[in-house]
Amino acid sequence: MPDATSLPPADREVARVDGVFYGDTGGTGNGSGMPVVLLHGFLFDQSMWRAQVAALSARGHRVITVDLPGFGASAVPEEPATMSTYSTAVAAIIDQLALPPVALVGYSMGGQVTLDTYAARPDLVARVVLVDTVAHTDLPEVAQGRRDLAARLEREGVRQYAEEFLPQLLRLDGASAATVSHARTMMHAADPVGAARALRARADRPDYGPVLDACPFPVLIVVGEHDPFDQGRFGAGMAERAPYGTLEVVAGVGHTPPLEAPDVFTGLLARFLGN
């Protein structure tokens, strides 16, 4: 189990459901905004959303951040994990808090958890935001690459891979030193077993394209202009598939707009949520 460095500041409630930790701003907002649930990406934790938590709670939203199973302070899931392992954990937190339908915001792996959550429990979700993620299944060679990486992380740990992965997550020539340090800290703290189980779950994930096709409410797709994984087309394709989809491209950043351009990203999110 990693230490609790990812846990929210003391001015937010910290709780857990079935070993999954989350932070909750509770009544710190004025109550006028839709509740927002923020889901982090692979090797990250809920602390990636610090800027968004502060800004959205100031705008009246109740904001919940989750350490997905196996990341941050949350317990590593049993093997084999599937995408429903993660989406069930998210749904359990929303149910525990008795929230009205939420805006579910997912970055990278968290975007796939978002789509899985909505597919399983549409009653919990009123808006979806997908950040630098994909809805399609992996090609066979990509899926095998995830499985091979899972085995490597179990053998070697995460630190060396984190250094290789970091330039794919951030534009290092544009990101601030504090942003790079924060990303590195999250990744170095990741549990290799939890990371490996997430990789295998993602390798076997279903196609979420049909989920987008049938989505009856607004969906915001956000991609970084220089995201090496998006290739300038996957986000656009998802926005076209969703009946009420909108694409926003954040200029000058890579795979991680919430960290690289927090003010721009949060502004897009606030406008999408209606404030």
Short characterization:
Keywords: Hydrolase. This protein has helices at residues 50-58, 83-97, 109-120, 140-156, 159-169, 177-188, 192-203, 209-213, 234-241, 257-260, 262-272, and strands at 13-17, 20-24, 36-39, 63-66, 102-107, 125-131, 219-224, 245-250. It has 275 residues and is an alpha/beta fold.
- Largest sheet report: 8 strands, mixed
Poorly predicted runs are: 1-5
Number of helices: 11
Please write the CATH class name: Alpha Beta
Q: Assembly type of the shown chains?
A: single chain
Named at the architecture level, the CATH assignment is: 3-Layer(aba) Sandwich
Order of helices and strands: EEEHEHEHEHHHHHEHEHH
Molecular shape: globular
Q: Which key phrases capture this entry?
A:
275 residues, alpha/beta, Rossmann fold, eight-stranded mixed sheet, 42% helix, globular, disordered N terminus, AB_hydrolase_fold, Epox_hydrolase-like, hydrolase activity
Account of the 3D structure:
InterPro entries: AB_hydrolase_1, AB_hydrolase_fold, AB_hydrolase_sf, Epox_hydrolase-like. Residues 36-265 form the AB hydrolase-1 domain. It holds the Pfam family Abhydrolase_6. It comes from Streptomyces brasiliensis. The protein is of the alpha/beta class. It is 42% helix and 16% strand. It has eleven helices and eight strands. The chain has an eight-stranded mixed β-sheet with strand order 1-2-4-3-5-6-7-8, with helices on both faces. α4 (140-156) packs antiparallel against α7 (192-203) and α5 (159-169) runs antiparallel to α6 (177-188). It is globular, with a radius of gyration of 17 Å.
